[in-house]
Design goal:
By secondary structure, the protein is mainly alpha-helical. Helices cover 63% and strands 0% of the residues. α1 runs antiparallel to α2 and α2 runs antiparallel to α3.
Amino acid sequence: MTIISTNAGDMGNAHSEYIGPLAEQGVPGMAFIIILVSVIIYTGSMIYSKSENKHSRKMSLAILLGLLTYFIHGIMNNFLDTDKLAVLCVGFVAMIVALDVYHSEPDEAPTRN
């Protein structure tokens, strides 16, 4: 045992963004996380491939690569519990959503009444 070890079961987690939901919510929790990550990667890659604006292509690629490094690193570590790191992940996802809305067709955009 180390200095920070405890037998009370009140510290630590599964150390994985994917195994953590599996342990806490079961198969539906893990399936939700995998589907969410897949949709984010798919949307980012579609923005990159369909964008004709050079700046938007570079931005979507940079955002997608940043998220991919986080998702790959999430196999071994869980950082969404830390607010300072979670804001980067959520911010990158928000940027992908903003780029998707920006590049959507005018007839697809929601209208205000």
